[in-house]
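Reproducibility note. Readers wishing to regenerate the assembly model reported in the main text can use the exact inputs given here. Chain order matters: entities are listed in the order in which they were concatenated for prediction.
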Amino acid sequence: MKLHTISINNLKRRKAKMAFLTIGLMVGIATIVILMTLTSSMSRDIEHKMEEFGANILITPQSNGLSMNYGGIGLGGVTFDQREIREEDLAAIKTIANNKNISAIAPKVLGGIQIGKHDVLLVGVHFDSELKMKQWWRIFGEAPATDNQLLLGSDASKVLNVSSGDTLQIKGETFKVSGVLEQTGSQDDALVFASLKKAQDLLGKQGRITLAEVAALCSGCPISDMVTQIAEKLPDAKVSAIQQVVEGRLKTLDQFKRFSYAMAGVVVFIGSLIVFVTMMGSVNERTTEIGVFRAIGFRKKHIMRIILFEAALVSLLAGCLGYLIGMGGAALALPLMAESKNAHVAWDATVAGGSVGLALLLGLLASLYPALHASKMDPTEALRAL
Amino acid sequence: MALIEINNLKKHYTSGEDTIEALAGVDISIEAGEFITIMGHSGSGKSTLLSVLGGMNHPTAGEVEMAGVKLYDLPGEELADFRAQHLGFVFQSFHLLPYLTAVENVMLPLAIVKMSTHDKKSAACKALEQVGLGAKTDRLPNQLSGGEQERVAIARAIVNNPHILLADEPTGNLDSTTSEHVMALFRELNDAGQTIVMVTHNAENGRYADRTIALRDGKVVNS
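Running the prediction on these inputs yields the following structure tokens for the assembly.
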């Protein structure tokens, strides 16, 4: 017989009340778990989409040029002081504070070149990073593996009348068309892609690049901070964010998160109130019992320990059940809330530990006053018979 | 020196503007090993006297000295410790915990004592055997008769070998035959050296005691 034996036996006796108390707290915890898990899964889903969407930071040479563009119709530009980005400068990007959020850096060199009778825009890229960034590309044939291979946009292949496996002559050199892009509906359709080094040679721009695209994983990091950090590292470059769509989604998610936290707060408050009222009722029902405890020599701290141990046991149970039910609820709700079919609920030890810890904290806090009230009961009043 | 010395004990209750004098200057001396019954009509102050003796009801004036300790001079929770170490209580309504078995109820005072569970159980079983319930240790209170529940309550009161056993109307809820058995049990305990102070309204119980103290209007009328 120890103090906790009394607590455990009392819980067994008052099954209905304790079940009510457990359910009250469990609903609160489950709600928090559902909301937290949903927002975190949706964040991951959007993060994944950001990768699919490709670049979200664009690095171009700094210039004092004025864009002459109206309604999407370009009229050329007036350039006063065109600076260049050197390929070696890009290494500095990997030293920014948020470097862990950089998924890929894709430098490009652009220039007009003649192939046969046609003027085309040649783009030199690192195919590894380009393919990682543009996961929507579908290639008929293979991606170029050597410097003497080309990848053509669908329109370019039609105009040049070549397909995968054919050869092309550029400035006296022979190139093999290793693959042709499926129609993308973007500017990529009209381009001819070569390896960065070969394109620099052909365009006479050795060691220089025209622009670089950076893909960042940024549900947790602010893109604007990364833009600033990169701009500091590349003072001669213009760094801008091209992430309006994703940012809009992140803002919506942020609003949902805030709403979730507010809702979770209300549910937790109600759960705590249920614990408080139930424990207070339980203490008042046990007035005589507490009187007996005091009469036989239990100290106030012993009474408190009995009440708080009961609260702790119930809270632990509510925390565990709340976590499991919350995860189940999140798994059911996620397909309705997330846009991607790949979104999934992840089992997170921090959320599990946090749920049980929060339940324990709430249970104990809400039971503190009832426990104090019990410990201060006058044994003579409590027993009345004496 | 007597085991219990009560000097000029007064206890007043106030209800609105009225003051009720439950104890109006009580002087009693009880020796170790005595079996005392306190008798009186309803409102005579006998239950108040027992609660003051039990260290649960601070007197308005006067002193209670037990085993050389001035009870109400003890600071804070030391009074609770004194109850745990020196006093045993038997209540009129038994006040057994319905969710604990007989042996668990008897072990209750030992829950705050540093002893192994095995030793606690042995002590509780011994106390239950002493009151004749050695064969019903695992019964819940609702599986026991009124007399048996009273015996469990007595076993709970004596399990920690208290100096003084305080009993409040222990036969108040029992039929006459069972009452006699319970009183005989108290007599046996007293014969074994246990000091007993019992409040009762039943004059028949007085014949089991060494001495009867009669109270009327908060005063001792014979001792």
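We highlight two features of this model. The interface with chain A takes residues 47, 50-51, 54, 56-57, 77, 80-85, 87, 89, 91-93, 95, 97-100, 104, 107-112, 117, 120-121, 124, 156, 168-169 of chain B (CB under 8 Å). The two ends of chain B are 18 Å apart (CA to CA).
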